Amino acid sequence: MAAADTQSMPAEPAPAVPDYLASPNAVLGDQIGSWRYGRAPDYTNTRKVWEETKQMSHTAGSLPQLVENLVKNWEVEASFKKDLNDWRTIDHSNYSFAINGGPPQSAEHMLQVGTYNAIIAPNEYYSPESSDFASSHKTFKRMMPTFAWEVLEVYSGPPQVAFRWRHWGTMKNDYVGFNDKGEKVTAKAHGGNIDIQGVTVATVDDKVRLQNVQTWFDPMEMFRQIAPNGIVNKQIVTPEDKKEVSEEEHESSTAASTAASTVTAAPSATSITRTEVPQNLNIRAEDQVDTVTASGNSLDDKVEATQRPTSAPGNGIVDPAQGSETAAAHEEMSKITPAQCPFMNKE
After folding, report:
1. Which of 294, 131, 132, 135 minimizes the C-alpha distance to 222?
2. Do 183 and 234 form a contact (C-beta atoms < 8 A)?
3. How many CA atoms are closer than 13 Å to the CA of 236, on its beta-carbon side?
4. Distant-in-sequence, close-in-space partners of 242: CB < 8 Å, separation ≥ 6
5. Which has the closest alpha carbon to 204: 72, 95, 60, 111?
6. Cβ count within 10 A of residue 182
7. pLDDT-based confidence at 69, cuts 50/70/90?
8. CB of 303 within 8 A of CB of 145?
9. Whether 200 contacts 228, CB under 8 Å
């Protein structure tokens, strides 16, 4: 008996990879109410610096490109989304973050203290104990308006992804912070590059969301580059002085767009004086860039934001400041299926 002819059903197209792998700007299009400053941040300048000064140009859809996009979207969420429920780049029930073999930190902890305070231990230049979330970002943003980030190489694929990265920017204004002794530390701006590198090993789930993240780097390398000759000014201040400065910085960071006087630097090196009135640390209006800033950059682009084009989750957006080659790569990556994705094709 001849077998009956059968007509195979057309296969449904495979879904695209998550948008936070396809574009570094995916979560910037999330229409949510938990943005730290009322709206999505503007990463235009940081992405432009990345485009112009990056060391690597990864192939669209390659493992290094996907890892880079994942981490960039995670940094945006860690820095600017106040509600953990809106973080799309982590596996909420299994997420932890650790620095240099230290104890694991929860997402709640990073959300409370800020990304800088979560990764920098107290030292002679800076102490997380003397800065809250807003003031810590303001400290580094003033000094270095853009802090670009890239993946240099990836050593292993999922579910445990090991990679080396680079974080860099230019010291355009003086560094002003509080150290582990409670002293106010000022390092004169030198206009040179600050370039640090590190290694991260991250476990991801089947949706390529971060779970166990462990990072190794030398946080003092940044401060050695901030003050390459070890020349800084230190001022003894009272707790009341520090509180007043912190409050002033917090008010400045949440303002819509104001910038008044110049960052001031103390005249002599390693001198110790007593100050009763904290200096105004606002940067000049003409020095402001990236109205919302990282690393950060975050880790990048912190404080006051301008409205960005938005898109629904699943549709990554491409920054208009990026080159046509990068935009084309992002568009191509958005069409990659799980079978083609290095993260998801484990065979």
Report:
1. 294
2. yes
3. 4
4. 130, 178, 182, 184, 278
5. 95
6. 15
7. very high
8. no
9. no
Residue with token string 């503007």 = 42
Say yes or no to pLDDT of 319 above 90: no
Distance, in Å, from the CA atom of 161 to the CA atom of 343, rounded to the nearest integer, reads 9
Indicate whether 131 pLDDT > 50. yes
Q: Decide: 69 and 20 in contact? Cβ < 8 Å.
A: yes
How far is the C-alpha of 271 from the C-alpha of 235, rounded, in Å? Answer: 8
Beta bridge partners of 178: 184
DSSP 57: -
Task: Specify the 3-state DSSP secondary structure of 160.
Answer: strand
Q: Single out the residue of 243, 241, 247 nearest to residue 277, CA to CA.
A: 241
| Residue 136 clears pLDDT 90, i.e. is over it | yes
Taking only the tens place, the pLDDT of each residue in 79-121 is 999 999 999 999 999 999 999 999 999 999 999 999 999 999 9
Cβ-contact 280, 142 below 8 angstroms: no
What is the C-alpha R_g of the chain? Answer: 22
